[in-house]
Specification:
The complex is a heterodimer of chains A (569) and B (163). By secondary structure, chain A is α/β, with parallel strands linked by helices. Chain A contains 22 helices and 21 strands. Chain B has two domains: 77 residues, ACT domain (Alpha-Beta Plaits), CATH 3.30.70.260; 71 residues, ACT-like. Chain A, domain 2 (Alpha-Beta Plaits). In chain B, 29% of the residues lie in helices and 40% in strands. The chains are: A alpha/beta (569), B alpha+beta (163). Chain B: Pathway: Amino-acid biosynthesis; L-valine biosynthesis; L-valine from pyruvate: step 1/4; Amino-acid biosynthesis; L-isoleucine biosynthesis; L-isoleucine from 2-oxobutanoate: step 1/4.
């Protein structure tokens, strides 16, 4: 069958069972938009800025098990997309981004809306392609989807010059992909898994630390079963929240810079640490030298060999898909004759409970002024702990991660690696489209939300009833916190004057806006918002300006060197 | 420590920048990098001379392997291997220097591949040290221009980097 390049693009998306494409039209993608117009299977979500298109597609992927798809034009369309692509890359999110390019003959001529998209995106994609012939589009898109979702997932960009989308070519969508240069390992090495199990069972102070890899490989169920069987303590990183039920007694909370006292102490003083789909990054282990100073054996399961022994030396590396390896580990455990050192484990739990009794997450609530932690706690109650929660980046992100107890995977969507302000609302859009009947809330701040505030318009057009919880403290809160603690209280450019009236702003876009000033009104406002099933409600909580995120491990310090509250300063 | 890494990569546009971009983005050293297609025109072979601790070299090979276009990576300096570099050096060759330069080229088994009434181009192959020694042995004020290819390397005997 002979089709135009543009028609081939759309046919490929249909073959991949893509429900939604998030995008923004422009000159170089006119043919593709024309082909999109002439069919109904692939629906298009018109955003108001390309960055939001990528974020929304990213969230669609995060909240489901599918590949997110976005479509942007050449030049500024592509450069606007870069922040979104880098965000997805840092968190290993499977995505395919299709960008228009100027016609082949114009490439290199400094044409209107021309940039070297493949060059600009190269460091922040898993792979990218420039298609020079319409006959190559189908095989390239097939490869793009294959690369995006296999191995360590990531965004893949396909750049298509305008003339290529207009050309005709024979269409055939390949059934499978063979790439001699790309064969990610899936099964873990049997001998290594046995070694790991032996170490775990002999451990006196075992600790399990899991990250985003558990979510990405859909391994929450096998992980939970295994950890319950072993009876060992577990922590989930910011990217791994929901990998193990947060309300379970074996769960110690999040580790790291703003992690719990018990999670950090247990990470540090464990004698065997099992790391699963996590990467020992600077926000999790702090100073790697301080972390390495305490002797412990480390088992590391990861699909990406380059994540192993990158920042911390690992004793038992296991390269493979997290889910496969955990299932194998569980099988071997069932057959194992090794006895677990239960006496030592009981002693270890007593120690952990002692650390737990410090109650590091307690905060002083107030009747006068709204505490951000209180808002998140109430949000958890009102939504029955079962909502999709997105966040932006900053203090509110940490409070959401600390106080919303995620019992299920793929419910917490945030920019963990790149730390991109402005993701919150587009993430909520993507999650709501993927789960039309679910409760979706965006926990944000007055600074972050303004980085993609224009998407209130998209939400209106597509009737996305997300709930925005703006923790408004009139400051770039996390910047202010660091300035207070490490820069002598000199609040350089962290105070934002002339903020809009967010409730009115939401109304101007056709939504409902509610300003909340008193702690007594928090719960009522939340209930009111979630009772409006068909409306976007913007809740503008006026919160304590001086509140800081604790516990805190300062940058460059060790995990055990925590500030638990303002009294520790 | 100095390492010589050889790799096979799909011979596609942008392949070189994926590799060089990786080195600059992660702050790894490149002492030299050479690339050319192999007997199979769809594959290019690169030889990269780099330096770093064992941990860094481990990361370099892992990161190179992670590039989607890279087919195989080998640190050939881990065992017996042969390295060669080509140098073309244009020198002033007049009066008594002319004879002297010819003699030095002979000693280093170089070949004069072009001559004018006032200059020679000498072709020299060998490992890095040999080429450096040649430059050290001649009167450097006579050097008009040098160009070096960077190292190419190959494992000895049964150590074969092929698809």
């Amino acid at each position: 069958m002979v089709l135009t390049g543009a028609e081939i693009v759309i046919r490929c998306l249909q073959e991949e069972k893509v429900d939604y494409v998030f995008g923004y039209p422009g000159g170089a993608v006119l043919f593709i938009y024309d082909a999109l117009f002439q069919q109904e299977k692939v629906r298009h979500i018109l955003v108001r800025h390309e960055q939001a298109a990528i974020h929304a597609a990213d969230a669609y992927a995060r909240s489901t098990e599918t590949v997110g798809v976005a479509l942007v034009t050449s030049g500024p369309g592509a450069t606007n997309a870069v922040t979104g692509i880098a965000t997805a890359y840092c968190d290993s999110i499977p995505m395919v981004i299709i960008s228009g390019q100027v016609p082949t003959a114009a490439i290199g001529q400094d044409a209107f809306q021309e940039v070297d998209t493949v060059g600009i995106t190269r460091p922040c994609v898993k792979h990218n392609f420039l298609v020079k012939d319409a006959a190559d589009i189908a095989s390239t898109i097939k490869k793009a989807f294959h690369l995006a979702k296999t191995g360590r997932p990531g965004p893949v960009l396909v750049d298509i010059p305008k003339d290529v989308s207009a050309q005709s070519a024979e269409y055939h969508y390949p059934k499978s992909v063979e790439m001699r240069s790309y064969n990610p390992v899936v099964k873990g090495h049997q001998g290594q898994i046995k070694k790991a199990l032996k170490l775990l069972l002999e451990a006196k102070r075992p600790m399990i630390y899991t990250g985003g890899g558990v979510i990405l490989s859909d391994a929450a169920a096998p992980l939970t079963q295994l950890v319950r069987k072993l009876g060992m303590p577990i922590t989930n990183t910011l990217m791994g929240l929901g990998g193990y039920p947060a309300t379970d007694k074996q769960y110690l909370g999040m580790p790291g810079m703003h992690g719990t006292y018990e999670a950090n102490m247990s990470m540090h003083f464990s004698d065997v640490l099992l790391a699963v789909g996590a990467r020992f990054d600077d926000r999790v282990i702090g100073d790697p030298a301080h972390f390495a100073a305490e002797p412990r054996k480390i088992i590391h399961i990861d699909i990406d060999p380059s994540s192993i022994s990158k920042r911390v030396k690992v004793d038992v590396p296991i390269v493979g898909d997290v889910k496969e390896v955990l299932e194998e580990l569980a099988r071997l455990l069932d057959d194992s004759k090794h006895e677990q050192d239960t006496a030592s484990l009981a002693t270890w739990w007593r120690q952990i409970d002692e650390w737990r009794s410090r109650d590091c997450m307690k905060y002083k609530n107030s009747d006068e002024i709204i505490k951000p932690q209180y808002v998140v706690e109430k949000l958890w109650e009102v939504t029955g702990g079962d909502a999709f929660i997105t966040s932006d980046v900053g203090q509110h992100q940490m409070w959401a991660a600390q106080y919303y107890k995620f019992d299920k995977p793929r419910r917490w969507l945030n920019s963990g690696g790149l730390g991109t302000m402005g993701v919150g609302m587009p993430y909520a859009m993507g999650a709501q489209l993927a789960h039309p009947d679910a409760q979706v809330a965006c926990v944000t701040g007055e600074a972050s939300i303004q980085m993609n505030i224009q998407e209130l318009s998209t939400c209106k057009q597509f009737r996305l009833p997300i709930k925005i919880c703006n923790l408004n403290n009139r400051y770039l809160g996390m910047v202010r916190q660091w300035q207070e603690l490490f820069h002598g209280g000199r609040y350089s450019e962290s105070y934002m004057d002339s903020l809009p009236d967010f409730a009115k702003l939401a109304e101007a876009y056709g939504h409902i806006g509610i300003r909340v000033d008193r702690p007594a009104d928090v719960e009522g406002a939340l209930r009111e918002a979630f009772s409006r099933k068909n409306d976007l409600v913007f809740l503008d909580f006026q919160i304590d300006q001086t509140e800081n995120v604790y516990p805190m491990v300062q940058g460059g310090k060790g995990l055990t060197e925590m500030i638990l509250s303002a009294e520790d300063l | 420590m100095r390492h010589v890494i050889a790799l096979l990569i799909e011979n596609e546009s942008g392949a070189l920048s994926r590799v060089s971009g990786l080195f600059s983005a992660r702050g790894y050293n490149i002492e030299s990098l050479t690339v050319a297609p192999t007997e199979d025109a769809s594959l290019s072979r690169m030889t990269i001379v780099t330096s770093g601790s064992d941990d860094i070299i481990e990361q370099i090979t892992k990161q190179l392997n992670k590039l989607v276009d890279v087919v195989k990576v080998v640190d050939i300096s881990e065992s017996a291997h042969v390295e060669r570099e080509l140098m073309l050096i244009k020198v002033r060759a007049t009066g008594k220097d002319r004879e002297e330069m010819k003699r030095m080229a002979d000693i280093f088994r170089g070949r004069i591949i072009d001559a004018t009434d006032s200059s020679y181009i000498i072709e020299l192959t060998g490992n890095q040290t040999k080429l450096d020694s040649f430059i050290g042995a001649i009167d450097t004020t006579l050097i008009l221009e040098t160009v070096r290819s960077g190292i190419v390397g190959i494992g000895r005997g049964d150590r074969i980097l092929k698809l």
